[in-house]
Design brief:
The protein is α/β, with parallel strands linked by helices. The protein folds into two domains: about 5-255, 3-Layer(aba) Sandwich (Rossmann fold), CATH 3.40.50.150; about 270-320, no CATH class. It has twelve helices and 13 strands. The strands form three sheets. It has a seven-stranded mixed sheet, with helices on both faces. Strands 10-11-12-13 form a four-stranded antiparallel sheet, with helices on one face. It has a two-stranded antiparallel ribbon with strand order 6-7. Helix 2 packs across helix 3 (about 60-75) and helix 8 (about 160-170) runs parallel beside helix 10. The protein starts with a helix and ends with a helix. It binds S-adenosylmethionine. S-adenosylmethionine binds next to helix 3.
Length: about 325
């Protein structure tokens, strides 16, 4: 067994660090999973039945572990189907462009990504609740196509045609009271500047970075989400849609963050520009910080002049409005 994986297994702890680029994506997005579980569970007709979650694209299990921890924190019983072929999928143009893609392809090709997924799922105690289906979603549909899920989380290949397929084929699998959601929607397609839209081969980029325009986004996700679902609710790149909700219910989800224990503690901007304040979340506390305060970090957040602290979003809101 290769050295990094051997040490990780010896540790008996979940691992989402730099090896294999296994700490995938922006951890702040995981802070919303518990709220999604709460809302999906409360809409269920049979409250005793498990909360069923389909994840498309699991890699080394970062988000799968967060779904599990988030559901368990509410004393729900999750059943999570993780669909991923765990095979290299980035083309040579992408691997040449960005290091993590090379790293991911290598870990997927060697089988280490799948081994680490299983290790992480075991360490978090989720083996009995997680069913890995080692196939592309198109082939997994034969196995799971008759199931219905409370939550479907889409985080597979970010190429436009793949995201389009994943959303289109997922829609019939979401319960009528369920939620479809996904990762990596940093910019809604209708907000992409014209100058960027005219970039040759824009949809061939997994991530498109335009330092001049200050833009980094996943064009395939933006376009496919827009074409299939139209406007969706999103926060920090995590998007969701429910046929049952108004936008207002969405914004309720995005006011109650929760950090799964294996996810790093970061300062999360919950709501921008409420009067003269930004409302932030850090270490289980809500903090309203004057917008004039400058950069807020874990080190200074509780000492910012004029900041108001609260144990809930509403509590802190009532102090500034
Ligand atoms: C961005 S990573 C997923 C990250 C993961 N959700 C996490 O939090 O660590 C994308 C994953 O999608 C998988 N993938 C690629 N094509 C797929 C397909 N057709 N069906 C399902 N998964 C696919 C890749 O193997 C890769 O593991």
């Amino acid at each position: 067994m290769p050295e990094p994986l051997f040490s990780i297994r010896q540790s008996g702890q979940v691992y989402f660090g730099p090896e294999f680029a296994s700490g995938q994506g922006d951890e702040r997005r995981h802070y919303w999973f518990q709220s999604v579980c709460r809302v999906a569970a409360s809409a269920k007709k049979d409250l005793e039945s498990p909360l069923t979650i389909l994840e498309i694209g699991s890699y080394t299990g970062f988000s799968a572990c967060s779904w599990y921890a988030s559901a368990r924190s509410l004393r729900l019983s999750p059943q999570i189907v993780c669909v991923d072929p765990w095979r290299p999928y980035f083309n040579s143009r992408q691997t040449a462009a960005q290091g993590p893609y090379r790293q991911m392809n290598a870990a997927l090709g060697s089988g280490e990504a799948y081994e680490l997924f299983n290790h992480n799922i075991r360490c978090i105690g989720a083996e009995g609740s997680v069913l890995p289906v080692r196939k592309p979603f198109s082939e997994a549909l034969e196995t799971i196509g008759a199931s219905k899920f409370d939550i479907i989380f889409i985080d597979g290949s970010h190429m436009y045609s793949d995201v389009l397929f994943d959303i289109q084929q997922s829609l019939p699998l979401v319960k009528s009271s369920g939620i479809i959601c996904g990762d990596d929607l940093e910019l809604s397609w209708d907000k992409v500047p014209l100058s960027v839209l005219s970039t040759p081969d824009l949809l061939d980029f997994d991530t498109y970075i335009d330092a001049k325009a200050g833009i980094a986004f996943h064009p395939g996700v933006s376009k496919a989400v827009w074409e299939t679902l139209g406007p969706v609710c999103s926060h920090t790149g995590f998007w969701l849609k429910s046929s049952k909700w108004s936008d207002c219910a969405c914004s309720d989800v995005f006011t109650i963050p929760w950090r799964p224990p294996h996810v790093a503690k970061v300062v999360l901007l919950v709501r921008e520009a409420v009067g003269d304040y930004n409302i932030l979340f850090f270490d289980d506390s809500y903090v309203a910080v004057p917008m004039s305060a400058g950069r807020v970090t874990p080190e200074n957040i509780f000492n910012v002049k004029g900041a108001k602290l609260g144990s809930s979003f509403q509590a802190v809101l009532s102090k500034i409005t």
